[in-house]
Every structure is written in structure tokens, then in C-alpha cells.
Amino acid sequence: MESVLEKLEKASKTIDETSYKIIAQEILKNFFAGVFNNQEALAKQCYVAVSQVTKFSKKIGYSGYRELLFNLKNEYKHYGWDQNENEVTSIEKFNQITKWISKNYRFVRAIVQAIKAKETINIYASYQVRHAAKYIVELFSSMDKVVKIISNELRNDMKPNKADEINLVLLCSRDNESLIRVFKAQNNPEQQSFLVTTERQKEKMKMPFEEIMLIDYNFDKSKKVYRNLAIEMLFMYIFENIQELSN
Questions:
Q1: Do 95 and 67 sit in the same domain of this protein?
Q2: How, if at all, do strands 192-197 and 165-171 pair?
Q3: Which residue segment(s) compose the domain that 23 sits in?
Q4: Contacts of 205 (CB under 8 A, 6+ apart)
């Protein structure tokens, strides 16, 4: 099921009605600033009639702006953005990521064995964590692995990957439709595929994976800087485990 943010982001890009695009863009801007305007204030901000805000809300699947706003506030709490980030030290954040890695020992063990045995790793990464994907390339290229970050551009001539290649899917942000389509077009059922994702994004991947690791450590808050750091720490740990087995 699409989140409110996903609906708003899609509306801000695809809806033809200009006033609706403006409303979606302003709600998104307010959301990331922690601001939740009432209907009248939002209409004034967007230079539209109050009735346009109601029509927009219905356009994206809500009974009105009140229901949209209610769901949006709940989503804000779900991401943990209502908490005071300054109260949490960097050391505490690192510790939570370390605990997250430790509790997912089954995923780590499985992917360590897979990477150790295979030569080619295909990385399908959300834009949010492309920095971490590049770091993974650097890590395993140093082991003489062939590591490829796959483009999210869907082409007609796409063929399934070879069975002896590993797929690593990093599905972390909301705008993932192209990435998922490309993965489905190239995925070979005989391959080993591993998924690192969030609870919300997991619903979009209706196919079997060797192992799935949820991004559910404390203080995540869906922020790009923490997501990249967490995934980099995870794969550094995996890299070090492979090195130990190889020695």
C-alpha cells in the first residue's frame, strides 16, 4: 500500500493539473520542515481556493484534507521525525546500527557464503543509498569480484542475469518503481538474491529472496546520511567476515 508521502511525490510529478502539483509540492516541503498547516493556511500558501485543497485530497484517495493530514501526521511519527534528534549522540546511533547488524546474523552468514563463492555481484540500489552502493563496489572489487551497480533505466533488450551471479537489492526510498521493474526484468530465478529494505518497501517485492534484512534500527528516521552509514557498516562487517574465512 502506498504511503501518503509516496502519493504526494507521485502527484507532484505526474498530475497534469498545475494547482494540484503546487499543493503536493507545498505539503511535501512543509512535511520535511515538520509543519502541518490547516486547510485554510495551505490554500493561502499555494494561492488556491480552499475547495481546491479538498479536491486534491480526494484526487489522491482521501475523503478530504482532514483525513490526508491525519495520515500524514501519523506517518511523520512512524518515521520518528517528531523526536528531538539532538538528544541522541552519534555514539548511541553507531551502537544501534551495530546491534542491528549483530541481530541479523542469519542474513550476514548467508550473504558471506554467497559472495565468497561467486564472482559477480549485481547491485540494484535506490537513489537514496547510491553512495553506499559505490562503497560496496570498492570493498568487493578489492577481492577481485566483478561488482556492478545496475542502471534503473528499463530497456526492451534486457535479459535475465546468469545463474552464477548474485543480486543485492538495496530498496530504501519511496520512488522505486523503475528500480523494481529493472530488477524483475533481469532477475534469474536460479540466482541467489538478497534484499535490504524497510518494512514499508518490502511490500513492493512480491518475489522470493535468499534472505531479507529489514532496516529497523533505532534512530533511523529514513534519513539519507544514516541509511548510507548503516549499509556501509553492514557491508564492511560482511567484507571482514569473508576475509577471515579466506585466511
A1: no
A2: parallel
A3: 4-78
A4: 169, 171, 180, 195, 197
* Same-domain check for residues 128 and 73: no
Residues 95, 53 share a domain: no
User: What does the radius of gyration of the chain's CA atoms come to, in whole angstroms?
Assistant: 21
Confidence at residue 85, expressed as pLDDT on a 0 to 100 scale: 53
List the beta bridge partners of residue 146: 120
**Total length of the chain:** 247
- Whole-number pLDDT of residue 83: 56
**Residues facing 212 on adjacent strands:** 195
The predicted structure's pLDDT at residue 89? 74
Distances (CA, A) of 107 to 40, 41, 93, 219: 49, 48, 21, 21
Dihedral sign of CA atoms 20, 8, 228, 179 in order: negative
Asked if residue 107 and residue 36 are part of one domain, the reply reads no
pTM of the model: 0.72
Domain identity same for 110 and 184 = yes
Which of 39, 56, 78 is at the close of a domain? 78
Q: Please tell me whether residues 167 and 239 are part of one structural domain.
A: yes
The type of residue at 178 is S
Check whether residue 105 and residue 216 sit in a common domain: yes
Largest pairwise CA distance in the chain: 69
pLDDT at 174 over 80: no
Q: Could you give the C-alpha distances from 188 to 97, 104, 160, 164, 167, in angstroms and in order? A: 32, 25, 5, 10, 9
